[in-house]
Amino acid sequence: MPPSSARRSRLSEGLPYPLGATWDGLGVNFALFSANATKVELCLFEEGGRREVERIALPEYTDEVWHGYLPDARPGTVYGYRVHGPYEPSAGHRFNPNKLLIDPYAKQMISHIEWNPALFGYQVESGDDTTFDERDSAPYVMKASVVDTAFTWRNGRRRIPWENTVVYEAHVRGLTKRHPALPEALRGTYAGLASAEITGYLGSLGVSTVELLPVHTFVDDSYLLDKGLKNYWGYNTIGFFAPARRYAANADFAFAEFKEMVAHLHDAGLEVILDVVYNHTAEGNELGPTLSFKGIDNASYYRLAPEPRHYINDTGTGNTVNLSNSRVLQMVMDSLRYWANDMRVDGFRFDLATILAREPHGFHEDGRFLDACRQDPTLSQVKLIAEPWDIGPGGYQVGRFSPGWAEWNDRYRDTVRAYWRGDDGKLPDLAARLSASADLFAKRGRKPWASINFVAAHDGFTLNDLVSYNDKHNEANGEDNRDGHSHNLSANYGVEGPTDDPQIRALRFIQMRNILATLLLSRGTPMLLGGDEIARSQGGNNNSYCQDNEISWVDWEGAGPDGRAQAEFVRKLLMIRRALPMLRRGRFLTGAYDEEIGVKDVGWLTPAGEEMTPENWEDAHGRCIGILLDGRAQETGIRRVGDDSTLLIITNAHSEVVPFTLPTAAGGSRWIKLLDTHKPDDTALAGSAFGERYEVPGRALLLFVLQPERTPQRATAAERSFQRVVQAVEEAALKAVRFGFE
Prior knowledge:
Blueprint: E1 20-23, E2 28-33, E3 39-45, E4 52-57, E5 60-62, E6 65-70, E7 78-84, E8 87-88, E9 93-94, E10 109-110, E11 143-145, E12 167-170, H1 172-176, H2 190-193, H3 196-205, E13 209-212, E14 216-218, H4 222-226, E15 237-243, H5 254-267, E16 271-276, H6 293-301, H7 326-342, E17 347-350, H8 353-356, E18 358-359, E19 362-363, H9 368-375, E20 383-386, E21 406-409, H10 410-421, H11 427-434, H12 438-441, E22 451-453, H13 463-466, H14 502-521, E23 525-529, H15 560-579, E24 593-594, E25 599-600, E26 602-605, H16 614-618, E27 624-629, E28 635-636, E29 639-640, E30 647-652, E31 658-661, E32 668-676, E33 687-688, E34 693-696, E35 700-708, H17 717-734
Parallel strand pairs: 12-13, 12-23, 13-16, 16-17, 17-20, 20-21, 21-22, 22-23
Antiparallel strand pairs: 1-2, 2-6, 3-4, 3-7, 5-6, 7-11, 8-9, 10-11, 14-15, 18-19, 24-25, 26-27, 27-30, 28-29, 30-35, 31-34, 32-33, 32-35
Helix pairs in contact: 10-11, 14-15, 15-17
């Protein structure tokens, strides 16, 4: 029997804005959008959420918002909603007041989902979603808790320029769960990520920005739980404002612990970017559960098919959030502003972002959501990164997002993988990707940073597995290895998986260093997959979305000497990148001749040290190329910059040695080798003469800097730049990455 209704004298009208439950120091205002409901009941629960103690009908309905003010509610009040209206699936309506619903604006959750037939709006045993289920779902659904959002911040958001950004993609649990220096209670938590051991490690490595896999409240799929698995990645959101309890050392204060984590990362000089999922929810299609949006106003929150009983499924997850609805768009914008303003995060990476820019007529680079972000005074000033594809019609949109956005560049990933594997005909594509993919992004005033360059990410092989497996090995996922993609562009170099063969192991680490050096010396914004810097493996699993275990967690101690040496190599690369503004300039490389100063910004060279010809570019067997970056041709705005070094990068994907003639470079005396992926620990900065035939090892990347001609009077800007780069290499050899457990 339902709890008795409250006396109306306790409840006043309240306000329709802001949406959600808002504590003002005297009471709580409750406001819920539903365009098609006929009645909304606020349900109050005892502390802990097990027993419903009261139902109160919200008294007012203004501009499609149901609202009321409860003066005796306080932070910690546990609540949910029951929403009345027609249950007409054929018309797109799935109201069922027997189902307790999560507030879309809830900022703190308690409890968790317990899978039970009562969670479904229809009689799930029948398989017929047109039936109506009268079982109460309250005992099994998570509830919201009112919070006091007050928090004292010492600093605001970090504001690292895009040109100086190096992204480190990580998972809160995966990064910290096996770190031996952390107390057991902090492993896998926001507090663990905030620890000095983790922030000190990331700072010493040299990355600028931590991009976290989803931390919005999400649901473990019932079919995964039945197999003893969990939704590890978190792309199954049910609450767009509440941080996931599962990552909190103290689950009842997850929102506060998340803020403390952000504060500590900021204090360490690191930005925080969140991977966010606004394209779909955990409620699935017409056969999915009724947890929140489906029962609040299904026809408003979701894109429905022409036969509205069914859902448009551009996400592959059963439903698609309807950002063409103004109130739904408002919810997403309110959520983003909340995380930016109240939680102080520095940017967002949008899962399946094409969906967010898709209107009923299709994708549009000036769609409502993109326009809303561009004009918003908060969101226009944070980092916005699109995953520019989905499975819907016209879903692949790399390079087509509007100015102000960066995009994951899978063309970069595939080209670099294929080139270093030794595939034919990759030099033209490689040149484009090293130059920040101007063919995709050089329009509408966009800058090189718009290309998020990556070779490995959470979805797919780790860098180690990329050079250790020919095929995916996803058997642990329980789908007979059918899940995950097969187009990995990988190679095992003789043995599938781990091996003690010293030659194969050495070659694999050389290839990892080649890929890392390519990534961090390219123009654009580099993104490292967390753990790749220590050669983390997932045993060949390229779809670890359900592996919340040792398969996915970073094995810090297991990295061994080789893994730690690789982290030192990454640190060296990042110090070189910081010391070379040319690699980060806000101009696309064109190769055009500058008549005014008589140089090209980039020259593409054959092993003979000569300019590439059309015939050279068309040679399918060409795998060695030199990239000459002339410091005199770099510029910022209208001012020439004379303090940039001139660089020569040589990449050789042939398996054999290639003699390379070092070119003559104006203003210099000789070439100094800064980096050789075959000799990562080499600190001897010996010089090589112009015209010298340098024996480039098979499968190698070399980096040279031009030593300027000496001037007797005073050091020139070019000389000072040269010394800065040399000093960076020397410092990299002296300093060490802080692993925190040595």
